[in-house]
Design a protein that fits this description.
It is a single chain. This protein is mainly α. The chain folds into two domains: about 30 residues; about 130 residues, Phycocyanins (Globin-like). α3 runs antiparallel to α5 and α4 crosses α5. The radius of gyration is 18 Å and the shape is elongated. About 20% of the residues are buried.
Length: about 160
C-alpha cells in the first residue's frame, strides 16, 4: 500500500483530515515519484538481461540444480525457474513504485514457502536465486537507485530465509 493510501485510511479510521506531518510525508513521496518510475522502467526494460545474468550466475554456483534430479533439470523446470525470476523482479518494481514492501508481501510472498516446499524446491536455493537476481538488477542501476531498490530484494530474501 502506498504512503498516500496509508495516510488516507488512517485519517478516515480516525474520522479526521490528514495532519500537516502526514501531508508532508505525501509530498516527499510524490517528490520521489520520477526517481522511482525511472528505476521501475530500467528494471522492466532490462528484464531479459537481468534474468539471463541471474540464472547464469545461479547455475554456475549451483550446477546441481540443472543436473539430473535437480529442480531445473529439464527444459520445463528450467523455463519455470526463469519465469519465477521475472516474477520476483516484477514484485520488486511494485515495491519500488509504491515506496513500500506491502505489495511484495500481499501479491507474491503469502504462501510462497509452502508452495516451494510442496514442490520440493529448496528454500536455500530460492534465497540464492533472489541474491543472484538482486546482483544482476542492481548492477544496471546508479548507486542511488541501487540503494533505493536493494531493500525490496532483501525483504524477499529475508522472508524466504
Amino acid at each position: 500500500m502506498s504512503v498516500v493510501s496509508k495516510v488516507i485510511l488512517k485519517a478516515d479510521d480516525e474520522l479526521r483530515y490528514p495532519s500537516s506531518g502526514e501531508l508532508q510525508g505525501i509530498k516527499e513521496f510524490l517528490d520521489t515519484g520520477l526517481f522511482r518510475i525511472k528505476i521501475a522502467e530500467t528494471l522492466a526494460e532490462n528484464e531479459k538481461k537481468i534474468v539471463d545474468q541471474a540464472s547464469r550466475e545461479l547455475f554456475r554456483k549451483r550446477p546441481d540444480f540443472r543436473a539430473p534430479g535437480g529442480n531445473a533439470a529439464g527444459q520445463k523446470q528450467y523455463n519455470q525457474c526463469l519465469r519465477d525470476f521475472g516474477w520476483y523482479l516484477r514484485l520488486v518494481t511494485y515495491g519500488v513504485l509504491a515506496g513500500d514492501k506491502e505489495p511484495i508481501e500481499q501479491i507474491g510472498l503469502i504462501g510462497v514457502k509452502e508452495m516451494y516446499n510442496s514442490l520440493g524446491v529448496p528454500m536455500a536455493g530460492m534465497v540464492e536465486a533472489i541474491r543472484c537476481l538482486k546482483e544482476a538488477a542492481l548492477a544496471l542501476l546508479s548507486k542511488e537507485e541501487a540503494e533505493e531498490t536493494a531493500p525490496y530484494f532483501d525483504y524477499i530474501i529475508q522472508y524466504m530465509s
